[in-house]
Design brief:
It contains 15 helices and 20 strands. The chain is α/β, with parallel strands linked by helices. The N and C termini lie far apart (75 Å). The N terminus is likely disordered.
């Protein structure tokens, strides 16, 4: 029998039952939460509240906005345990990783509270005019369409800079994390943000178009699949609305012949298994020079084998279930198709019995271009190892992808690492470490991984009117 639980009452959320938006615990298969989908009238009301809040929020100083963000950081840390448990229940993230996600959100709020005024300060340029100044002004209502895999971080890395710039935000979160969406809105309310400055709407993915097209919405940010990005970007483009798209990835990790192999294997396993491998910037393709492939693969298998799937509510669990059963089926199909095409299985690759969307750490070798695990994004704990004869071949195969989000290079030679990093077609490249986002650094991709940037000074300037004012 389903075990239904209410959304945590951090703050009340309006919802009238229409078509339920449901959260299914991926570790047990039980329904844990059911929330009402918004009617068209409720969507219009939410957007009207956001539109009304914009002049109020925009009128506050950077210091006043920053004080709310600092309060938000305190609120996040104060509710770390309940929020980490909420993520575990709705999408399977181990609670230890959930706590780290909440801390990262708090740090992002503190970063923009401290730096937004400097990032958006007017800039004077010397011209023939008496005064030529560039100003950075907010746009208005920003629509955020966010995924389930990092249900707090993805939202806060978009919201913190957008709100500090003076915008307000409407969130359409993934349908399987309604409790996380409610908790986020409640935190903003509790921490002194004006009513409507951050508004959550419960909608299925098929109704995003009505949000994008609404006259109140001035810009759109989306994190999700390439297909979702293509659809929403087209909708935003047809309305001439600015958009930022952070989409899928198939990050290559190059292990060169002079790499520290134990360090590389440990980092690669971590990069493949964080969040169950359900990350756009997870390591997915391992391009290993033949002279070290056997030893690296042995070490990688040992590292991966040590991460045993378990109950995400336990502190000792390092690897939880996938977020949904259909996602596990898709991942396993990619493994099966790759094995049929000639890849060789070294670890895992078998769907376990019992309840839940668990999938074991899996390593395939002898992977070649054309195979599913090489060409497609694998959203789960599956590592694909490809041998390469030379550094040039490694770079060529790394760039032989429709994606261009992150990449990593392992070598003891820093100069070599820097040179190879500059040859890789990606939005970010890490040397002797795994790819991650950081509020201080721009984050985003190229090709089918999207466009625009989040975080850093670049991210906060994505959703502002860069206005030139010239006086004579």
């Amino acid at each position: 029998m389903d075990r239904e639980q209410p959304v945590p009452q951090l703050h009340g959320c309006e919802a009238i039952v229409l078509m339920p938006v449901e959260a299914i615990n991926p570790a047990t298969g039980e329904r844990v939460r059911s929330v009402a989908e918004f009617s068209a009238a409720q969507v219009a009301g939410a957007l009207a509240r956001a539109e009304a809040a914009y002049p109020v929020w925009r009128g506050l100083s950077f210091a006043e906005r920053g004080s709310r963000l600092l309060a938000l950081a305190v609120g996040l840390r104060g509710q770390r345990e309940v929020l980490a448990r909420l993520m575990a229940e709705e999408m399977g993230k181990p609670v230890a990783q959930g706590r780290a996600e909440i801390d990262k959100c708090a740090g992002c709020c503190e970063y923009y509270a401290a730096n937004a005024a400097r990032f958006l300060a007017p800039e004077t340029t010397l011209t023939e005019a008496r005064d030529s100044t560039v100003h950075y002004q907010p746009l208005g209502v920003v629509l955020a369409v966010m995924p389930w895999n990092f249900p707090f971080w993805q939202v806060f890395r978009a919201a913190a800079p957008a709100l500090m710039a003076g915008n307000v935000m409407v969130l359409k979160h993934a349908s399987n994390v309604p409790g996380c969406a409610a908790a986020i809105e409640a935190l903003f309310t509790q921490c002194g943000f004006p009513t409507g400055a951050f508004v959550n709407v419960y909608l299925g993915g098929g109704r995003v178009r009505e949000l994008v097209a609404h006259p109140a919405v001035r810009a759109v940010t989306l994190t999700g699949s390439t297909l979702a990005g293509q659809q929403v970007a087209a909708q935003a483009g047809s309305c001439l609305k600015k958009s930022v798209m952070e989409l899928g990835g198939s990050d290559p990790y190059l292990v060169l012949d002079d790499a520290d192999l134990p360090v590389a294997a440990r980092a690669c396993a971590t990069a493949r298994l964080i969040n169950g491998g359900q990350s756009c910037i997870a390591a997915k393709r391992f391009l290993v020079m033949e002279s070290v492939r056997e030893e690296f693969t042995r070490l990688l298998v040992a590292e991966m084998a040590g991460r045993i799937p378990g109950d995400p509510l336990l502190d000792t669990t390092l690897l939880g279930p996938l977020a949904r059963m259909d996602l596990r089926s898709e991942l396993h199909a990619q493994v099966v198709r790759s094995l049929a095409a000639g890849a060789r299985l070294l670890l895992g690759g078998v769907v376990p019995p019992g309840p839940g969307a668990f999938y074991p750490p899996t390593v395939l070798t002898d992977v070649l271009p054309g195979m599913a695990v090489f060409e497609e994004e694998t959203f789960g704990p599956v590592a694909a190892v490809t041998g390469v004869a030379t550094e040039a071949e490694a770079v060529s195969l790394a760039n032989r992808s429709v994606f261009g989000l992150g990449a990593a290079v392992f070598t003891r030679d820093q100069e070599r690492g820097q040179r190879v990093a500059m040859e890789l077609e990606a939005g970010g490249c890490f040397i002797n470490d795994f790819v991650r986002s950081d509020p201080r650094l721009p984050f985003g991709g190229i090709k089918q991984s999207g466009y625009g940037r989040e975080l850093s000074v670049v991210g906060i300037r994505e959703f502002v009117n860069i206005k030139t004012v010239v006086a004579n």
